[in-house]
Amino acid sequence: MTPEAAGRIVRVETFAVAPRWLFCRIETDQGVVGWGEPIVEGRAEAVRATVEVLAEYLLGQDPLRIEDHWQVMANGGFYRGGPVLSSALAGLDQALWDIAGKAYGVPVHALLGGPVRDRVRMYAWVGGDDPGQLAENVGARLEQGFDAVKMNATGRMPALASVADLTGVVERVALAREVLGPTRDVAVDFHGRVSAADARRILPLIAPLHPMFAEEPVLPDRPHLLRGVVTASSVPVATGERLYSRWDFRPALEAGVAVVQPDLSHAGGISETRRIAALAEVWDAKLAPHCPLGPIALAASLQVAFATPNFLIQEHSIGIHYNEGADLLDYVADTSVFAFTDGHVSRPTAPGLGIDVDEAAVRRADKPGHAWRNPVWRHDDGGFAEW
User: Fold this and answer.
1) Residues 127 and 213 placed together within one structural domain of the fold
2) DSSP letters of 190-250?
3) 378 located within any domain
4) Could you report the per-residue pLDDT of 21-63, keeping only the tens digit for each?
5) Which pairing describes strands 21-28 and 119-125: parallel, antiparallel, or unpaired?
6) Share of the chain above pLDDT 90, in %
7) What percent of the chain has pLDDT over 70?
8) Are 188 and 151 in contact (CB under 8 A)?
9) Residue 360: inside a domain
10) Are residues 87 and 215 in the same domain?
11) Which residue of the set 69, 109, 191, 344 is catalytic?
12) Among the options 69, 109, 290, 344, which is catalytic?
Protein backbone atom coordinates (compact mmCIF):
# COMPACT_ATOMS: atom_id res chain seq x y z
CA MET A 1 0.00 0.00 0.00
CA THR A 2 1.20 3.54 -0.75
CA PRO A 3 0.65 6.43 1.65
CA GLU A 4 -1.72 8.04 -0.86
CA ALA A 5 -3.95 4.98 -0.58
CA ALA A 6 -4.76 5.74 3.07
CA GLY A 7 -7.57 7.99 1.91
CA ARG A 8 -9.69 10.21 4.18
CA ILE A 9 -11.26 9.48 7.56
CA VAL A 10 -14.93 8.58 7.18
CA ARG A 11 -15.83 6.85 10.45
CA VAL A 12 -14.83 6.96 14.13
CA GLU A 13 -16.44 4.41 16.47
CA THR A 14 -16.04 3.55 20.15
CA PHE A 15 -16.62 0.29 22.00
CA ALA A 16 -17.00 -0.15 25.76
CA VAL A 17 -15.73 -3.67 26.42
CA ALA A 18 -15.25 -5.73 29.56
CA PRO A 19 -13.60 -5.66 31.95
CA ARG A 20 -13.20 -1.83 32.03
CA TRP A 21 -11.83 -0.68 28.68
CA LEU A 22 -12.83 1.59 25.82
CA PHE A 23 -11.59 0.98 22.27
CA CYS A 24 -11.87 3.29 19.28
CA ARG A 25 -11.80 2.43 15.59
CA ILE A 26 -10.95 4.88 12.80
CA GLU A 27 -11.77 3.89 9.21
CA THR A 28 -10.85 5.63 5.96
CA ASP A 29 -12.69 5.71 2.66
CA GLN A 30 -10.07 3.29 1.34
CA GLY A 31 -10.92 0.71 3.99
CA VAL A 32 -7.83 1.24 6.14
CA VAL A 33 -8.65 0.72 9.83
CA GLY A 34 -6.75 1.87 12.88
CA TRP A 35 -7.43 0.94 16.50
CA GLY A 36 -6.82 2.86 19.71
CA GLU A 37 -7.64 2.58 23.41
CA PRO A 38 -8.91 5.84 24.95
CA ILE A 39 -9.93 5.20 28.53
CA VAL A 40 -9.98 6.64 32.02
CA GLU A 41 -10.72 3.64 34.19
CA GLY A 42 -14.06 4.26 35.87
CA ARG A 43 -14.90 7.21 33.58
CA ALA A 44 -15.33 5.45 30.23
CA GLU A 45 -18.56 7.30 29.47
CA ALA A 46 -16.93 10.72 29.76
CA VAL A 47 -14.03 9.71 27.52
CA ARG A 48 -16.39 8.18 24.99
CA ALA A 49 -18.27 11.46 24.71
CA THR A 50 -15.02 13.36 24.27
CA VAL A 51 -13.89 11.02 21.50
CA GLU A 52 -17.17 11.77 19.73
CA VAL A 53 -16.50 15.51 19.97
CA LEU A 54 -12.94 15.16 18.64
CA ALA A 55 -14.20 12.90 15.86
CA GLU A 56 -16.13 15.87 14.44
CA TYR A 57 -12.77 17.41 13.54
CA LEU A 58 -11.19 14.19 12.22
CA LEU A 59 -13.94 13.27 9.74
CA GLY A 60 -12.82 14.05 6.21
CA GLN A 61 -9.18 14.54 7.22
CA ASP A 62 -6.02 12.90 5.89
CA PRO A 63 -5.16 10.36 8.64
CA LEU A 64 -1.40 10.65 8.02
CA ARG A 65 -1.14 14.22 9.31
CA ILE A 66 -0.78 12.83 12.82
CA GLU A 67 1.16 15.66 14.43
CA ASP A 68 -1.12 18.35 13.03
CA HIS A 69 -4.18 16.44 14.24
CA TRP A 70 -2.57 16.02 17.66
CA GLN A 71 -1.95 19.74 17.98
CA VAL A 72 -5.50 20.64 16.96
CA MET A 73 -7.15 18.06 19.22
CA ALA A 74 -4.91 18.91 22.19
CA ASN A 75 -4.89 22.69 21.87
CA GLY A 76 -7.65 23.74 19.49
CA GLY A 77 -10.42 23.70 22.09
CA PHE A 78 -8.79 26.46 24.20
CA TYR A 79 -9.13 24.44 27.43
CA ARG A 80 -6.30 21.93 27.57
CA GLY A 81 -5.10 18.86 29.41
CA GLY A 82 -6.65 16.76 32.13
CA PRO A 83 -7.30 13.03 32.14
CA VAL A 84 -10.47 12.93 30.02
CA LEU A 85 -9.29 15.06 27.09
CA SER A 86 -5.76 13.63 27.16
CA SER A 87 -7.09 10.05 27.21
CA ALA A 88 -9.53 10.64 24.36
CA LEU A 89 -6.69 12.19 22.39
CA ALA A 90 -4.41 9.29 23.32
CA GLY A 91 -6.68 6.62 21.85
CA LEU A 92 -7.25 8.56 18.63
CA ASP A 93 -3.51 9.15 18.32
CA GLN A 94 -2.84 5.41 18.68
CA ALA A 95 -5.38 4.67 15.95
CA LEU A 96 -3.83 7.24 13.59
CA TRP A 97 -0.38 5.72 14.08
CA ASP A 98 -1.91 2.30 13.42
CA ILE A 99 -3.29 3.59 10.11
CA ALA A 100 0.05 5.20 9.24
CA GLY A 101 1.95 1.97 9.81
CA LYS A 102 -0.52 0.07 7.67
CA ALA A 103 -0.35 2.74 4.94
CA TYR A 104 3.44 2.56 4.80
CA GLY A 105 3.47 -1.21 5.33
CA VAL A 106 5.71 -1.09 8.43
CA PRO A 107 5.33 -1.40 12.21
CA VAL A 108 4.97 1.90 14.04
CA HIS A 109 8.39 1.59 15.63
CA ALA A 110 9.92 1.82 12.14
CA LEU A 111 8.22 5.20 11.72
CA LEU A 112 9.64 6.30 15.09
CA GLY A 113 13.22 5.80 13.92
CA GLY A 114 13.52 2.03 13.93
CA PRO A 115 14.12 -0.49 16.69
CA VAL A 116 16.84 -0.01 19.28
CA ARG A 117 16.36 -3.48 20.80
CA ASP A 118 15.14 -6.92 19.75
CA ARG A 119 13.04 -7.81 22.78
CA VAL A 120 11.37 -5.97 25.64
CA ARG A 121 11.45 -6.98 29.28
CA MET A 122 8.03 -7.28 30.94
CA TYR A 123 6.86 -7.31 34.54
CA ALA A 124 3.74 -8.94 35.96
CA TRP A 125 1.34 -7.96 38.73
CA VAL A 126 1.26 -10.05 41.95
CA GLY A 127 -1.11 -8.18 44.30
CA GLY A 128 -0.11 -7.00 47.75
CA ASP A 129 -3.20 -5.27 49.15
CA ASP A 130 -3.63 -8.44 51.17
CA PRO A 131 -0.29 -10.19 51.65
CA GLY A 132 -1.92 -13.59 52.28
CA GLN A 133 -1.29 -14.96 48.77
CA LEU A 134 1.67 -12.78 47.85
CA ALA A 135 4.31 -15.52 47.97
CA GLU A 136 2.09 -17.86 45.97
CA ASN A 137 1.42 -15.18 43.35
CA VAL A 138 5.10 -14.33 42.98
CA GLY A 139 5.93 -18.00 42.58
CA ALA A 140 3.27 -18.39 39.89
CA ARG A 141 4.75 -15.52 37.89
CA LEU A 142 8.21 -17.05 38.15
CA GLU A 143 6.81 -20.29 36.76
CA GLN A 144 5.47 -18.28 33.82
CA GLY A 145 9.01 -17.12 33.10
CA PHE A 146 8.91 -13.57 34.47
CA ASP A 147 11.92 -12.28 36.36
CA ALA A 148 10.28 -9.02 37.49
CA VAL A 149 7.01 -8.39 39.34
CA LYS A 150 5.13 -5.45 40.81
CA MET A 151 3.22 -5.43 44.07
CA ASN A 152 1.22 -2.97 46.15
CA ALA A 153 3.17 -1.79 49.18
CA THR A 154 0.09 -1.45 51.34
CA GLY A 155 -3.60 -1.80 51.67
CA ARG A 156 -5.59 1.07 53.15
CA MET A 157 -3.28 3.38 55.12
CA PRO A 158 -4.08 5.86 57.92
CA ALA A 159 -3.16 9.52 57.73
CA LEU A 160 0.10 8.70 59.51
CA ALA A 161 1.33 5.12 59.77
CA SER A 162 1.73 3.22 63.02
CA VAL A 163 4.69 1.01 63.80
CA ALA A 164 2.59 -1.97 62.72
CA ASP A 165 1.75 -0.28 59.42
CA LEU A 166 5.40 0.45 58.70
CA THR A 167 6.43 -3.06 59.65
CA GLY A 168 3.70 -4.47 57.42
CA VAL A 169 5.14 -2.76 54.35
CA VAL A 170 8.63 -4.07 55.06
CA GLU A 171 7.31 -7.59 55.67
CA ARG A 172 5.42 -7.58 52.38
CA VAL A 173 8.46 -6.55 50.35
CA ALA A 174 10.69 -8.96 52.28
CA LEU A 175 8.31 -11.81 51.50
CA ALA A 176 8.47 -11.04 47.78
CA ARG A 177 12.25 -10.68 47.90
CA GLU A 178 12.58 -14.07 49.62
CA VAL A 179 10.71 -15.78 46.79
CA LEU A 180 12.48 -13.81 44.06
CA GLY A 181 16.00 -14.17 45.36
CA PRO A 182 18.80 -11.72 44.52
CA THR A 183 18.71 -12.03 40.72
CA ARG A 184 15.11 -10.96 40.07
CA ASP A 185 13.29 -7.66 40.57
CA VAL A 186 10.32 -6.39 42.53
CA ALA A 187 8.74 -2.98 41.97
CA VAL A 188 6.72 -1.57 44.87
CA ASP A 189 3.60 0.49 44.11
CA PHE A 190 2.42 2.91 46.78
CA HIS A 191 -0.60 3.99 44.67
CA GLY A 192 -0.60 7.39 46.35
CA ARG A 193 -1.87 5.75 49.54
CA VAL A 194 0.73 7.06 51.95
CA SER A 195 1.56 10.58 53.04
CA ALA A 196 4.83 12.16 51.98
CA ALA A 197 5.99 11.98 55.60
CA ASP A 198 5.35 8.23 55.69
CA ALA A 199 7.00 7.75 52.31
CA ARG A 200 10.15 9.35 53.72
CA ARG A 201 10.01 6.86 56.61
CA ILE A 202 9.18 3.77 54.55
CA LEU A 203 11.65 4.04 51.68
CA PRO A 204 14.78 3.81 53.86
CA LEU A 205 13.26 0.76 55.58
CA ILE A 206 12.79 -1.14 52.31
CA ALA A 207 16.03 0.08 50.72
CA PRO A 208 18.01 -2.99 51.96
CA LEU A 209 15.56 -5.16 49.97
CA HIS A 210 16.59 -3.35 46.78
CA PRO A 211 13.26 -2.73 45.03
CA MET A 212 13.60 -1.91 41.34
CA PHE A 213 11.61 1.25 42.01
CA ALA A 214 8.99 2.71 44.36
CA GLU A 215 5.97 3.84 42.36
CA GLU A 216 3.79 6.86 43.14
CA PRO A 217 4.93 7.42 46.75
CA VAL A 218 3.42 10.91 46.47
CA LEU A 219 0.05 11.86 45.00
CA PRO A 220 0.39 13.33 41.51
CA ASP A 221 -1.01 16.74 42.47
CA ARG A 222 1.82 17.26 45.01
CA PRO A 223 5.02 17.41 42.92
CA HIS A 224 6.50 19.95 45.33
CA LEU A 225 6.83 17.10 47.87
CA LEU A 226 8.65 14.71 45.55
CA ARG A 227 12.19 15.97 46.11
CA GLY A 228 12.02 15.27 49.82
CA VAL A 229 10.89 11.71 49.14
CA VAL A 230 13.50 11.15 46.43
CA THR A 231 16.33 12.30 48.70
CA ALA A 232 15.11 10.26 51.69
CA SER A 233 16.67 7.02 50.43
CA SER A 234 18.54 5.32 47.61
CA VAL A 235 15.38 3.63 46.29
CA PRO A 236 14.63 4.83 42.72
CA VAL A 237 11.33 6.71 42.65
CA ALA A 238 8.86 6.26 39.77
CA THR A 239 5.76 8.25 38.91
CA GLY A 240 3.55 9.25 36.03
CA GLU A 241 0.42 7.15 35.54
CA ARG A 242 -1.66 10.20 36.53
CA LEU A 243 0.41 12.77 34.62
CA TYR A 244 -0.74 13.63 31.13
CA SER A 245 1.86 15.78 29.33
CA ARG A 246 5.54 16.66 29.15
CA TRP A 247 4.69 19.78 31.17
CA ASP A 248 3.24 17.60 33.94
CA PHE A 249 6.40 15.49 33.98
CA ARG A 250 8.93 18.30 34.16
CA PRO A 251 8.48 19.04 37.91
CA ALA A 252 8.80 15.32 38.68
CA LEU A 253 12.00 15.09 36.66
CA GLU A 254 13.38 18.22 38.30
CA ALA A 255 12.64 16.59 41.68
CA GLY A 256 14.87 13.67 40.71
CA VAL A 257 12.55 10.78 39.87
CA ALA A 258 14.43 7.89 38.26
CA VAL A 259 11.57 6.36 36.25
CA VAL A 260 8.71 8.01 34.33
CA GLN A 261 5.52 6.02 33.80
CA PRO A 262 3.25 7.74 31.29
CA ASP A 263 0.26 5.67 30.26
CA LEU A 264 -0.17 5.61 26.49
CA SER A 265 -3.95 5.63 26.94
CA HIS A 266 -3.82 8.71 29.18
CA ALA A 267 -0.76 10.80 28.29
CA GLY A 268 -1.57 11.86 24.75
CA GLY A 269 -0.82 8.53 23.09
CA ILE A 270 2.28 7.54 21.15
CA SER A 271 3.06 11.11 20.07
CA GLU A 272 3.25 12.65 23.54
CA THR A 273 4.81 9.64 25.24
CA ARG A 274 7.72 9.80 22.80
CA ARG A 275 8.27 13.43 23.80
CA ILE A 276 8.02 12.59 27.50
CA ALA A 277 10.65 9.86 27.06
CA ALA A 278 12.99 12.27 25.29
CA LEU A 279 12.50 14.84 28.05
CA ALA A 280 13.23 12.18 30.68
CA GLU A 281 16.50 11.34 28.97
CA VAL A 282 17.76 14.84 29.80
CA TRP A 283 17.48 13.92 33.51
CA ASP A 284 18.86 10.40 33.01
CA ALA A 285 15.44 8.97 33.84
CA LYS A 286 14.09 5.75 32.33
CA LEU A 287 10.76 5.03 30.65
CA ALA A 288 8.47 2.31 32.05
CA PRO A 289 5.00 2.86 30.54
CA HIS A 290 2.04 2.24 32.82
CA CYS A 291 -0.35 -0.28 31.23
CA PRO A 292 -2.85 -2.27 33.33
CA LEU A 293 -5.17 -2.01 30.31
CA GLY A 294 -6.12 -3.84 27.14
CA PRO A 295 -4.33 -5.17 24.07
CA ILE A 296 -4.32 -1.97 22.02
CA ALA A 297 -2.73 0.07 24.81
CA LEU A 298 -0.12 -2.65 25.31
CA ALA A 299 0.60 -2.86 21.58
CA ALA A 300 1.08 0.92 21.43
CA SER A 301 3.34 0.81 24.50
CA LEU A 302 5.51 -1.86 22.92
CA GLN A 303 5.92 0.10 19.71
CA VAL A 304 7.31 2.99 21.75
CA ALA A 305 9.45 0.65 23.86
CA PHE A 306 11.19 -0.81 20.83
CA ALA A 307 12.11 2.66 19.54
CA THR A 308 13.09 4.38 22.82
CA PRO A 309 16.73 4.28 24.00
CA ASN A 310 15.98 5.04 27.66
CA PHE A 311 13.23 2.43 27.99
CA LEU A 312 13.43 0.25 31.14
CA ILE A 313 10.58 -2.27 31.40
CA GLN A 314 6.93 -2.73 30.36
CA GLU A 315 3.84 -3.46 32.45
CA HIS A 316 1.07 -5.76 31.16
CA SER A 317 -2.35 -6.77 32.45
CA ILE A 318 -2.65 -10.45 31.52
CA GLY A 319 -4.08 -12.17 34.59
CA ILE A 320 -4.36 -8.98 36.65
CA HIS A 321 -7.11 -8.91 39.27
CA TYR A 322 -9.05 -6.17 37.46
CA ASN A 323 -9.71 -8.46 34.50
CA GLU A 324 -13.01 -10.04 35.49
CA GLY A 325 -15.24 -11.15 32.63
CA ALA A 326 -12.59 -10.71 29.95
CA ASP A 327 -8.84 -10.62 29.60
CA LEU A 328 -6.36 -8.98 27.27
CA LEU A 329 -6.03 -11.89 24.85
CA ASP A 330 -9.81 -12.16 24.33
CA TYR A 331 -9.78 -9.31 21.82
CA VAL A 332 -6.87 -10.27 19.56
CA ALA A 333 -7.16 -12.78 16.71
CA ASP A 334 -3.52 -13.86 16.92
CA THR A 335 -2.30 -14.03 20.51
CA SER A 336 1.25 -14.98 19.56
CA VAL A 337 2.29 -11.32 19.38
CA PHE A 338 1.95 -11.26 23.18
CA ALA A 339 3.80 -14.54 23.77
CA PHE A 340 6.32 -14.03 26.57
CA THR A 341 9.61 -15.90 26.56
CA ASP A 342 11.82 -15.64 29.65
CA GLY A 343 9.82 -12.61 30.73
CA HIS A 344 10.35 -10.80 27.42
CA VAL A 345 8.30 -10.14 24.29
CA SER A 346 9.81 -10.19 20.81
CA ARG A 347 9.68 -7.25 18.44
CA PRO A 348 6.42 -7.17 16.45
CA THR A 349 6.86 -7.05 12.68
CA ALA A 350 3.29 -6.64 11.39
CA PRO A 351 2.30 -3.19 10.07
CA GLY A 352 0.83 -0.58 12.36
CA LEU A 353 0.49 -1.45 16.03
CA GLY A 354 1.31 -5.05 15.16
CA ILE A 355 -1.88 -6.70 16.39
CA ASP A 356 -4.94 -8.10 14.66
CA VAL A 357 -7.95 -6.91 16.67
CA ASP A 358 -10.82 -9.39 16.72
CA GLU A 359 -13.47 -6.92 15.59
CA ALA A 360 -16.33 -9.37 15.95
CA ALA A 361 -15.41 -10.04 19.58
CA VAL A 362 -15.15 -6.31 20.25
CA ARG A 363 -18.57 -5.60 18.74
CA ARG A 364 -20.13 -8.43 20.75
CA ALA A 365 -18.57 -7.17 23.97
CA ASP A 366 -19.79 -3.63 23.35
CA LYS A 367 -23.45 -4.69 23.36
CA PRO A 368 -23.61 -5.26 27.13
CA GLY A 369 -20.79 -2.76 27.66
CA HIS A 370 -19.65 -2.08 31.22
CA ALA A 371 -19.95 0.50 33.98
CA TRP A 372 -16.76 -0.26 35.92
CA ARG A 373 -16.01 1.94 38.92
CA ASN A 374 -13.06 1.82 41.24
CA PRO A 375 -13.69 1.04 44.91
CA VAL A 376 -14.16 3.90 47.38
CA TRP A 377 -12.21 3.32 50.56
CA ARG A 378 -12.80 4.90 53.95
CA HIS A 379 -10.83 5.16 57.16
CA ASP A 380 -12.11 3.67 60.40
CA ASP A 381 -13.59 7.04 61.32
CA GLY A 382 -15.61 7.19 58.09
CA GLY A 383 -13.38 9.68 56.30
CA PHE A 384 -12.26 9.21 52.70
CA ALA A 385 -9.15 7.07 52.17
CA GLU A 386 -6.93 6.90 49.09
CA TRP A 387 -7.45 3.81 46.97
Assistant:
1) yes
2) -TT-S-HHHHHHHHHHHGGG--S-EE-SS-TT-GGGHHHHHTTSSSPEEE-TT--SHHHHH
3) no
4) 999 999 999 999 999 999 999 999 999 999 999 999 999 999 9
5) unpaired
6) 96
7) 99
8) yes
9) no
10) no
11) 191
12) 290
Rounded to a whole number of angstroms, the distance between the first and last alpha carbons of the chain is 48
Residues 55 and 180 in one domain: no
- Partnered with residue 33 across adjacent β-strands are 27
> Are 237 and 337 in a shared domain?
yes
Does position 194 have pLDDT exceeding 90, yes or no? Answer: yes
Residues 76 and 123 in one domain: no
Number of compact structural domains in the chain: 2
Which residues neighbour 26 within 8 Å (Cβ) at sequence distance 6 or greater? Answer: 9, 11, 12, 33, 34, 35, 36, 58, 63, 92, 95, 96, 99
Residue 301 lies in a domain: yes
- 290 catalytic residue (yes or no): yes
CATH number at residue 324: 3.20.20.120
Q: Are 237 and 217 in contact (CB under 8 A)?
A: yes
85: Cα within 13 Å, side-chain hemisphere: 14
Residue 96: give the domain boundaries.
3-106
157 and 41 share one domain: no
Q: If residue 346 lies in a helix (H) or strand (E), which one and from where to where? A: strand 344-346
Q: Is residue 375 in some structural domain?
A: no
DSSP result, 254-302? HHT-SEE--BTTTSSHHHHHHHHHHHHHHTTPEE--B--S-HHHHHHHH
Same structural domain, 168 and 69: no
Residue 233 C-beta-side C-alpha neighbours within 13 Å = 23
The per-residue pLDDT for range 270-289, each reduced to its tens digit, is 999 999 999 999 999 999 99
CA atoms within 13 A on the CB side of 33: 11
Q: Which residues contact 128 (CB under 8 A, 6 or more apart)?
A: 134, 151, 152, 153, 154, 172, 176, 189
Kindly state whether residues 154 and 85 are assigned to the same domain: no
Instruction: Single out the residue in 71, 88, 106 at which a domain terminates.
Output: 106
What does pTM read for this prediction? 0.96
In this structure, what CATH number is given to the domain that contains residue 101? 3.30.390.10
- 191 catalytic per annotation: yes
Among residues 79, 114, 81, 74, which one has the least CA distance to residue 96?
Answer: 74
CA distances from 373 to 264, 325, 361, 387 (A): 20, 15, 23, 12
